């Protein structure tokens, strides 16, 4: 069975999956090399090579490979100095991993609504929270209501599009907050000409099965901060201080990527620009065809952004299109086309029901109306089936 983003039942032959990996490069050769040479575990030349390729690609000085993106976020928070009972601002419209990573560090997420145009973390809400709901006490930013220290911001570049980071960076600098980019969904995207992942203090990527490039499961931390990179490497390898005596100077984690996975990552990285080009042409074909379809609004790219359109998503206006996003999901499924709603926003998640309720109307609407459409790099002719079906369903409801 092919890898896919589960939205219910497994994808069957002949169906159009949402987003599957593209494996057509040197994956077999490099993985075979690992097996032939016995370098299968977390030491090996492919891990170093994959790190260098990633660092070079996003223009960062250092990269540290991890077992997945969630582990990368956990470690990035720790090296950025986030401590138990701190607060960390994070997008509410995201997959749950960054919020969970904040809790793994013992800190508390403060959920920030999305902006309505590009659906990313709303920078004005970040500034308002910091300037109005916090105070500067003895060199630290404190939430006036909870009294907790606010230590970092995690902007999540969702769906392949960057967050508008300048206002966030400015307020972070003013109050000495770390900016930890969750760039897991946006490898290759650019903000004002700069690579996502090289905008904040430290950034994280994911290579799980549905991402632009995949290692099956994997992640990466990138930063220009040498001390942070060293600490990240130390923490991801059980904080082993003396390899002979097995002396560990603190409690570390077994988070390092294996050579086999990194081998796959190297092969995938060799084709990353081709994959991005494919994602962009899929997006422009959707844009063109769906433009005239009442009630379907495609994701848009900000003038200051270069999106990689990782997961092509539309908003479905129930009144105008004739059915809502969930009914459409069901109809597409009946036709063998897989689609998926956006994530339940974090401020609504039962996992975070113990936090103070947050008012995030934009994320609520995105959750209600959002639907991601098939957009695998190898989508090809199947895209026509998707757009024809959307047109037909819309016309039939009129
Ligand atoms: C926004 C976001 N952050 C973090 C992750 C976590 O990455 P991983 O699944 O590799 O742990 C993902 C995706 O899986 C994601 O979409």
Secondary structure elements and their pairing?
Layout: H1 27-37, H2 45-58, E1 62-66, H3 69-79, E2 87-91, H4 97-104, E3 108-112, H5 123-133, E4 134-137, E5 140-143, E6 150-154, H6 166-174, E7 178-182, E8 190-191, E9 194-195, E10 202-206, E11 219-223, H7 226-236, E12 240-242, E13 247-248, H8 259-269, H9 272-290, E14 296-298, E15 305-306, E16 313-316, H10 318-321, H11 325-334, E17 340-341, H12 361-369, E18 370-372, H13 382-396
Parallel strand pairs: 2-3, 2-6, 6-7, 7-10
Antiparallel strand pairs: 1-11, 4-5, 8-9, 8-15, 10-11, 12-13, 14-16, 16-18, 17-18
Bound molecules: pyridoxal-5'-phosphate (PLP).
Pyridoxal-5'-phosphate binds at residues 68-70, 94-95, 97-98, 156, 182, 184-185, 206, 208, 219.
Mean pLDDT: 95
Number of strand elements: 18
Query: Shape from CA axes?
Result: globular
Strand content: 15-25%
**Spatial strand arrangement across the major sheet:** 1-11-10-7-6-2-3
Which class do the helix and strand fractions yield? alpha+beta
Give a written overview of the molecule:
With 398 residues, the chain is an alpha+beta fold. It is 36% helix and 17% strand. The protein has helices at residues 27-37, 45-58, 69-79, 97-104, 123-133, 166-174, 226-236, 259-269, 272-290, 318-321, 325-334, 361-369, 382-396, and strands at 62-66, 87-91, 108-112, 134-137, 140-143, 150-154, 178-182, 190-191, 194-195, 202-206, 219-223, 240-242, 247-248, 296-298, 305-306, 313-316, 340-341, 370-372. Helix 5 packs parallel to helix 6 (166-174). The longest helix is centred in the C-terminal third of the chain and has 19 residues, at 272-290. The two termini are 38 Å apart. Mean pLDDT is 95; it is low at 1-9. The protein binds pyridoxal-5'-phosphate. Pyridoxal-5'-phosphate (PLP) binds at residues 68-70, 94-95, 97-98, 156, 182, 184-185, 206, 208, 219.
